[in-house]
Design goal:
This protein has 197 residues and is α+β, with helices and mostly antiparallel strands. It folds into two domains: 138 residues, 2-Layer Sandwich (Beta Polymerase, domain 2), CATH 3.30.460.40; 44 residues, no CATH class. 38% of the residues lie in helices and 18% in strands. Helix 3 packs across helix 6. The C terminus is likely disordered.
Length: 197
Amino acid sequence: MSSGLAAGFLLDQQWHWLRGEMETTKKPALAALVRVLDSANVSYAIIGGVAVQVHHPDPRTTLDIEVAVLSADAIPRDALIAAGFKSTGSFEHSENWVAENGTPVQFTDDPDLASAVRSAEEISLENVTLRVIRVLDLVRQKLRAGSDPARVAPNGFPISWTRKGCSRTIRVFAPSSRRRSSWCSIGCLFEPRFRAR
């Protein structure tokens, strides 16, 4: 298991403890989800915050599990229900579930992630093997999400990444300042030394 993922599970416990809740992590939900997907032979890739935890050793937390699949029809709904997951709604290109322990799970069948699903890396998590989006595909996903006007806060940073302390940008060719801002956020996420002076 990657050190970033292990740290993420510890942060899960601390977050729940600070809220006065039972100490829990998304680890059992992640393992149960992977077992269901594997037994149904679903092509998938773990994306989002959990993928960042897998690929980066620094502590980072995320409350949900995001999964890219090739088609919404491939989501094994009956098997998920049998494993204790509950459907909480669906939207264009996404379907939301919650695990038995309350961990939110979001499936996406976004066609732009199809190649990332096909090329996902396999990472061991105790007795299951996770299929996780590759780093390059993860950065592309975050850049694309950050350039989506529906997900950008008034300050130009992606809503989920708005943070103080990141004023340097990694210079890349990008026609819009939002993309540079998104890249800066990714720089802060992947390389914590990029801080404001």
